[in-house]
Specification:
817 residues, alpha+beta, Isoleucyl-tRNA Synthetase, domain 2, Isoleucyl-tRNA Synthetase, Domain 1, 37% helix, RNA-binding
Length: 817
RNA sequence: GCCGGGAUGGUGGAACUGGUAGACACAAGGGACUUAAAAUCCCUCGGUAGCAAUACUGUACGGGUUCGACUCCCGUUCCCGGUACCA
C-alpha cells in the first residue's frame, strides 16, 4: 500500500482500465433496464471551462450511480459545432472555420477524457459533419412538402459598411460591434418553420413534464403565451382596406380612441409618401435594434398618419397613429388603443393629447381615470347597449356582436412566433433549397443530399463567402434542369441542437435520420442536465423537433414518446467574484491547472460540493484544496485496517453502524431526489470524520470499521471514480468500485429506542430531554417538568397548551398564573 | 419593460412537508509536533453583555398569519438568467 495519495498516476491507471474493459459503452442488445443520461453538448470553443466541468460532473455522477444500480446506461457526448464564434475566430486567424473547429474538438476531447467521464465515445457526434446535418436537411425538405416550412419576410439587424447581417449579440448599444456604425433594420425573405402549428400540443404536453422544474415549465407556458380574445376589423375612412387587430379585452372596445400601427405597416408606408415628416419618423423607427428588451425599454414615440379608421360599433372615426413600440411581424402589426384601460396606451394618449374614454368602472367605488388607467375587469359604462354588463359578460356579448356583423369574432392568439431558421452566415448547415426562375423554391431531392457546405472558404467579416463561391451557388434546377441558384443562407444552429438527443440513440445509423429500434430502447432521455439559460429556446425547439420527427414517421409515440426529456435538471452558472466567468473580465479559472495540480477527482469533488446543482456556484480556489484534503483524509483511513486488537465496545459499534447506514440513506436520497450532491458529499465527509474518530477494537469493531470504509469507497465512486477504484483495490474489494452494487440501507442498524427531544417554552428552545422513541405527550411533559433548565421557565406560569411533534420537540405554551 | 429565479456568519452552503438556524467545508485566530518549513492533529469561530453558567438578539428590508416562520401571505429593495440572430 502506498502511503500517500498521488492522483496523477492513479487516474491514468484507472482510465486505461475502464477503457480496456468497455464498461462505459451503452449496449444496444441487453437484458438490463436502460437509462439515458444526457448532458447538454458543448460548443467547441477550444477550452473546457468550469461551466462544462460542472455540467459533466453532474451527469457523470448520475450515469455512474445508475450503472451501480444495475442499469444499462447511455451516456453520450458530442459537439454543437456550427456557429458564430468559429467565423469570428476564422476572421481573426485568417483560417477557415472548419479547421479551427476540428482542432478545438480534438483539444476538448482530450480534456474531457482527462476528467474521467464515463462517456460512450463510440457515439460521438459533431454537428458540422455532413453525416449529421444531412438528416436535418432531409427533414426540412419534408417540412416544405407539408407546408410546415415556408418563406416570409422578416427584419434583421443590418450594418451597411460591413454589408452584413448582425446577430443581436453583435449589436452593442444600437451600433455594429466592429465598425460602430448605427445598425438599421432590413427586411429580408427568410425561411420559417411553423412551430405555431404545434403551439397547442407544446402547451398541453407541458403537463406531462412532471420531472421538469416548475419554473422551466412556467417559463415555457408564458413563452407560448396562449390568450383568448377577439379579432376586430376596423374599416378605413377613404379606402376599401381594413385594419385587423387582436385584443384580449374586447370588453373595452367601446373605449377605443385611436389605433396604432407599426412603422413597417403598409398603411404607415403609404401615408408617409405624402408626408416627409412621417417618412422621417419611420426612418427613425427603423434604427432600433430588433431585440425585445430594446424595443420595450426605449422611449415610446408616435406620429399621426392623418388616416382614420371607423369604429366597428359606433362608426366614429378614430385616428391612426404610427407607434415605435408596435412590431410588424408580431400579430397583425396593428393594435387598437384604449387609454382608459391600458397603462401603455394611457401614457401614450397623455403624451400626445389623445382622448381618453372610460368604459369600465370598478364593481365597487370610483376610479380616478384622470390619474391612471383602470386595467382590472369591472362593469361597463359609456358603452351604449353594453352598459351595465360585467367585463366577463361584455367580452362574450361584444365578441358575438362582431361575429354576427362580420366585423371579427372570437380568436385564440399565441405569443409564440414561427421559428426563423435562416441565417445569413457561412458556418452552418446549408438550407437544402434551389431557387429556380421557373419553378420557384425547389427542395433538394433526397438523392442530392447532403448539400455539402464547402469547408475551405475564408470569412471576411462582410457577407457570407458562400455568396462568392460560384461552384456552390450555381446549380441546375432539379425540376426543370435550367440554371438555378442555391439558397445561400444556412440554418440557425438551434436546428442541430434540437435533435441530437434522439440521434445519439443511433449515432452511426446511415440509412435514415433515426433508427426506430434504437429509439424504442433509449428514448426519451431519462435525465437531461444543462444550463438554466436554455430553459426556453433550446428546450422548446428540441421538444418541437422531437414531435416533428415523430410526425415524419421516424418513430411512434410508443417508441420514442411525445416528449424528448423525461426529467430535467437545470444547473446554475459558475461565477467568480460574483459575475459570470469570461475572458474579457479576466476572471476565468482553467480546469486544466486544477487537474494538473490536484487531479481530476479533486476538480470533480469540488464542483459538486461547492453548491447545490441548480444554484450559481461561486468559485473559490481555497475550497479546491479543501476537497483535496478530504480525499487525503479518506486515504489515511486505510491505516487503521487490521491493526487494532482489544475488546470490542458494543455501544460504539452500534453507533458507528448507525452513522454508516444513515450516510447510505442520505446519499441514496440525494441521487433519487433532486441531486443535492453538495449535501451527499457533506454526509460522506461526516462519515469520514466518524471513522477517523473511531477506534476499531475486537472482531466486531474491526468488521464495522471495514464495512464503513468499503461503503465509503463505494459511495464515493460516482463522484471521484478513480480515487474510489484505487481505494477499493487497496481494500481488496472484489469488483472495481465503479461497478460495485450500490449499497443497501441496513434498517436494523438505524434503529434506536432512546431519542433526544427538544423542549420549547413559548416556541423558544429551553432544554433537551432523553426519552423513549415513541413517548406520548404526558410522558414527555413529565420528563420536561423534571428538567432543571426547563423548570425555571415554568415557575409561576399556568400551562395553556402543549404541542408534541413526535421525535422532534415539545412546545409548552404558558401564561402568567 | 416583460417573464423566471435568488438573497442565511468573514466565505460557499445546511435546515425533511411550518418544528433545535448555521450541518459539512473554506478562511481567520490560538495551540501541538518540527532545528525550521511543509504535511498532519487539537481548540475557538453570527452579534451584544458576561470570567462563566446564561440572557437578549439574529436568515435582504417593512408588515401579517401561527403555539412556533429561513420556510406561508402582502408590500419593497438589490442581484442574476431569458427576452426569439451568443450557444
Amino acid at each position: 500500500m502506498s502511503d500517500r495519495y498521488e492522483a496523477q498516476g492513479i487516474e491514468a491507471k484507472w482510465q486505461k482500465k475502464w477503457q480496456a474493459s468497455g464498461i462505459d459503452a451503452a449496449v444496444d442488445d441487453d437484458e438490463r433496464a436502460s437509462y439515458y443520461c444526457l448532458v447538454m453538448f458543448p460548443y467547441p470553443s477550444g477550452n473546457l471551462h468550469m461551466g462544462h466541468v460542472r455540467n459533466y460532473c453532474l451527469g457523470d455522477a448520475v450515469a455512474r450511480y445508475k450503472r451501480m444500480n444495475g442499469f444499462n446506461v447511455l451516456h453520450p457526448i458530442g459537439w454543437d459545432a456550427f456557429g458564430l464564434p468559429a467565423e469570428n475566430a476564422a476572421i481573426k486567424h485568417q483560417r477557415p472555420p472548419a479547421e479551427w473547429t476540428y482542432a478545438n474538438i480534438d483539444q476538448m476531447r482530450v480534456q474531457l477524457k482527462r476528467l474521467g467521464l464515463s462517456y460512450d465515445w463510440s457515439r460521438e457526434i459533431a454537428t458540422c459533419d455532413p453525416a449529421y446535418y444531412r438528416w436535418e436537411q432531409w427533414l426540412f425538405t419534408r417540412l416544405m412538402e407539408k407546408g410546415l416550412a415556408y418563406q416570409a419576410r422578416a427584419e434583421v439587424n443590418w450594418c451597411d459598411p460591413c454589408h452584413t447581417v448582425l446577430a443581436n449579440e453583435q449589436v452593442v448599444d444600437g451600433n455594429c460591434w466592429r465598425c460602430d456604425t448605427a445598425v438599421q433594420r432590413k427586411n429580408l425573405k427568410q425561411w420559417f418553420i411553423r412551430i405555431t402549428a404545434y403551439a397547442e400540443e407544446l402547451l398541453t404536453d407541458l403537463d406531462k413534464l412532471s420531472g421538469w422544474p416548475d419554473k422551466v415549465v412556467g417559463m415555457q407556458r408564458n413563452w407560448i403565451g396562449k390568450s383568448s380574445g377577439a379579432e376586430v376589423s376596423f374599416a378605413m375612412v377613404d379606402s376599401d382596406e381594413t385594419l385587423e387587430v387582436f385584443t384580449t379585452r374586447p370588453d373595452t372596445l367601446m373605449g377605443v380612441t385611436y389605433m396604432a400601427v407599426a412603422a413597417g405597416h403598409p398603411l404607415a408606408k403609404k401615408a408617409a409618401e405624402n408626408s416627409p415628416e412621417l417618412a422621417l419618423f419611420l426612418e427613425e423607427c427603423s434604427k432600433i435594434s430588433t431585440k425585445e428588451a430594446d424595443v420595450e425599454t426605449m422611449e415610446k414615440k408616435g406620429m399621426a398618419t392623418g388616416c382614420y379608421a371607423l369604429h366597428p360599433i359606433t362608426g366614429d372615426a378614430v385616428p391612426v397613429w404610427v407607434a415605435n413600440f408596435v412590431l410588424m411581424g408580431y400579430g397583425t402589426g396593428a393594435v387598437m388603443s384604449v387609454p382608459a384601460h391600458d397603462a401603455r396606451d394611457f401614457d401614450f394618449a397623455h403624451k400626445y393629447g389623445l382622448s381618453i374614454k372610460q368604459v369600465i368602472r370598478p364593481l365597487e367605488g370610483e376610479w380616478p381615470i384622470e390619474d391612471a388607467a383602470f386595467t382590472e375587469p369591472g362593469q361597463l359604462i359609456n358603452s351604449a347597449q353594453f352598459d351595465a354588463l360585467t367585463s366577463a359578460q361584455a367580452k362574450q356579448m361584444i365578441t358575438t356582436w362582431l361575429a354576427d356583423n362580420g366585423k371579427g369574432g372570437e380568436r385564440v392568439q399565441y405569443r409564440l412566433r414561427d421559428w426563423l431558421v435562416s441565417r445569413q452566415r457561412y458556418w452552418g448547415a446549408p438550407i437544402p433549397v434551389i431557387h429556380c426562375q421557373q419553378c420557384g423554391a425547389v427542395p433538394v431531392p433526397d438523392a442530392q443530399l447532403p448539400v455539402l457546405l464547402p469547408t475551405d472558404l475564408q470569412p471576411t467579416g462582410g457577407a457570407s463567402p458562400l455568396n462568392e463561391c460560384d461552384a456552390f451557388r450555381y446549380v441546375d434546377c432539379p425540376r426543370c434542369g435550367e440554371r438555378a441558384e442555391r439558397e445561400l443562407d444556412t440554418f440557425d444552429t438551434f436546428m442541430e441542437s434540437s435533435w441530437y438527443m434522439d440521434r445519439y440513440t443511433s449515432s452511426n445509423h446511415d440509412s435514415g435520420m433515426l433508427d426506430s429500434d434504437a429509439m424504442r430502447r433509449w428514448a426519451p432521455v431519462d435525465q437531461y442536465i444543462g444550463g438554466v439559460e436554455h430553459a426556453v429556446l433550446h428546450l422548446l425547439y428540441a421538444r418541437f423537433y422531437h414531435k416533428l420527427m415523430r410526425d415524419a414517421g421516424l418513430f411512434s409515440s410508443a417508441e420514442g414518446g411525445d416528449e424528448p426529456f423525461k426529467n430535467l435538471l437545470t444547473q446554475g452558472m459558475v461565477l467568480k467574484d460574483g459575475t459570470k466567468m469570461s475572458k474579457s473580465k479576466g476572471n476565468t479559472v482553467d480546469p486544466k491547472a486544477i487537474i494538473e495540480r490536484f487531479g481530476a477527482d479533486t476538480a470533480r469533488l469540488f464542483t459538486l460540493f461547492a453548491a447545490p446543482p441548480e444554484k450559481e456556484l461561486e468559485w473559490n480556489d481555497a475550497g479546491v484544496e479543501g476537497g483535496h484534503r478530504f480525499l487525503k483524509r479518506v486515504w489515511r483511513l486505510l491505516e487503521k485496517l487490521d491493526v487494532a486488537d482489544g475488546e470490542a465496545d458494543d455501544a460504539a459499534v452500534k453507533q458507528l453502524r448507525r452513522s454508516i447506514h444513515i450516510t447510505v440513506q442520505r446519499v441514496t436520497h440525494a441521487f433519487e431526489h433532486g441531486f443535492a450532491f453538495n449535501v451527499a458529499i457533506a454526509a460522506l465527509m461526516e462519515l469520514t470524520n466518524n471513522l477517523q474518530d473511531y477506534q476499531p477494537k475486537g472482531a466486531s469493531g474491526q468488521a464495522a470499521y471495514r464495512e464503513g470504509v468499503e461503503l465509503l469507497a463505494t459511495m464515493l465512486a460516482p463522484f471521484v471514480p478513480h480515487f474510489a477504484c484505487e481505494l477499493g483495490e487497496l481494500l481488496g474489494m472484489q469488483q472495481m468500485a465503479v461497478m460495485a452494487d450500490w449499497p443497501q440501507v441496513d434498517a436494523a442498524a438505524l434503529e434506536q429506542h432512546e431519542i433526544t427531544l427538544v423542549v420549547q417554552v413559548q416556541g423558544k428552545k429551553r432544554g433537551e430531554i432523553k426519552v423513549a422513541k415513541d413517548i406520548d405527550q404526558q410522558g414527555a411533559m413529565a420528563a420536561a417538568e423534571a428538567n432543571a433548565a426547563v423548570q425555571k421557565w415554568l415557575v409561576d406560569m399556568q400551562i395553556v397548551k402543549v404541542i408534541l411533534v413526535p421525535g422532534r420537540l415539545l412546545n409548552i405554551v404558558v401564561k402568567p398564573a
